[in-house]
Write a structure and sequence with these properties.
heterodimer; A: 5-stranded mixed β-sheet; B: mainly alpha; two-stranded parallel sheet; 3 helices; 2 strands; globular
């Protein structure tokens, strides 16, 4: 038997909670995107179909509906309220969407699934198109079914969501993304295969030379383009901050920034300094020859030049601190988190623009 | 990190010698540094020349921050 539902024979059902936006929840279109959070008993809209597809023994006990604007603008409150509401329901599965290419819907569905899964330990399943910003944020931690952009395919998408959902509840092994229909999570998994790597590689190369089809085992991670922030209007009035991933830290490395896969960053004062001296700093970075920066830290954090420019009025102000971490061998999810935390600090301290030096 | 800062709407210029990485992650404003081991310097130059090089590099970074088109 491939999977096992909660034994329906004993009358115990698989309890499902489903999240929908205002449109799929039947409240209305974009003009209703401001409506707040609602908890409804039973299955509504696509959740009804989900219940059917999950089959025997499954019941959608609650449908949660929220307007997309409201949910994004109050994400923390909405998440907290949802967690509180479903905490003691004994739910076996949390489902959200499908969201197709609706960005706000995807962000909220992803955030809710991640929170329910991590904090309540209830498995979660959602569906989005590959371009949905929710994918980039949550793909590593969640199974996100590839919904494509066509809402007419809702049924097909729900079939895949139900299949993976059932497996999650039964703790059954889940196959590869292409087979199961979910978006690649960027995870590597050990697998025993018949041919050794060298043979597979030569086979692929030969196929490529012959112009035949082949499938690479290493799929490059794709990065969604980020729009370029507007230019600084007047740099002579702007507050400039330096950030580096080259691992420059004060002597003694007070924040214990790791030289590989650093999990934190430090903020270090340069107030009153015109020049960085090697004797005051060390470099926590295991990925390059750090002697030159150790000798003169301005080679990584160009303080001397920026201080001159501050004094001569080329820039408005050099921020009193620089931020530093080590970028070596760092998983993307971690550097993204660090980037978000840095961004919060940059904003909080009223910095207008950033020079980021990378080794 | 660059893209997260950019997502937050903060203009960022990345000075790096590892151009392919900056391109891969989609950094919008990139200035080529003087080498992995001394991004904003060059240990081979005499100190005053090195500083001049750094001034130019930083100026280039500031110019990039003030421009809105990809160069």
């Amino acid at each position: 038997m491939a999977f096992c539902l909660r034994p329906s024979a004993s009358g115990v059902k698989m309890k499902v909670i489903h999240y929908l936006n205002q449109f799929f929840g039947g409240i209305g279109a974009e003009e209703q995107a401001g409506v707040g959070l609602e908890f409804r008993d039973g299955a509504v809209g696509p959740a009804k179909l989900m219940e059917q597809l999950l089959g025997d023994g499954a019941q959608v006990v609650m449908t949660i509906v929220c307007g997309d604007n409201y949910a994004v603008e109050h994400q923390e409150e909405v998440t907290a309220a949802v967690l509180l509401k479903i905490k003691d329901t004994g739910a076996d599965l949390f489902a959200a969407g499908p969201c197709f290419d609706a960005g706000r819907y995807g962000m909220v569905a992803g955030a809710l699934c991640a929170a329910v899964q991590d904090q309540l330990k209830i498995p979660a399943i959602t569906a989005m198109s590959g371009e949905n910003p929710g994918v980039d944020l949550y793909r590593e931690g969640l199974y996100i079914v590839d919904s494509g952009t066509n809402a007419g395919k809702t049924r097909d998408v729900l079939v895949k969501m139900a299949a993976i959902g059932r497996k999650l509840v039964g703790k059954d092994p889940i196959g590869l993304p292409a087979g199961e229909g979910y978006l690649p999570r960027g995870l590597l998994r050990d697998q025993l295969v018949e041919k050794r790597a060298s043979t597979r590689m030569v086979d692929m190369l030969l196929s490529k030379m012959r112009g035949e089809k082949f499938e690479s085992e290493m799929s490059p991670i794709s990065f969604a383009p980020v729009p370029m922030p507007a230019a600084v209007k007047d740099i002579s009035k702007a507050k400039v901050m330096v950030i580096t991933d080259g691992g420059l830290v004060p002597k003694g490395n007070p924040d214990k920034i790791q030289g590989t896969a650093a999990t934190n960053f430090g903020a270090y004062s340069v107030a009153g300094r015109d020049d960085l001296k090697g004797e005051d700093y060390e470099v926590s970075h295991g990925g390059y020859d750090t002697r030159f920066v150790q000798e003169d830290p301005d080679r990584l954090v160009p303080l001397d030049a920026l201080r001159e420019m501050e004094k001569s009025g080329v820039i408005g102000k050099l921020h009193d601190e620089f931020l530093s971490t080590c970028g070596r061998s760092n998983p993307l999810s971690n550097t993204r988190r660090l980037g978000r935390e840095m961004a919060a600090k940059v904003k909080q301290e009223g910095v207008d623009c950033v020079i980021l030096t990378s080794t | 990190m660059t893209t997260e800062l950019e997502k937050a709407g903060i203009p960022v210029v990345q000075i790096t010698s590892a151009l392919p990485i900056a391109k891969m992650v989609g950094s919008n404003r990139v200035v080529l540094g003087t080498g992995i081991v001394h991004v904003t310097g060059d240990a081979k130059l005499p100190p005053e020349d090195e500083k001049e090089l750094r001034r130019k590099l930083v100026q280039k970074a500031l110019d990039a921050l003030q421009s809105s088109a990809k160069s």
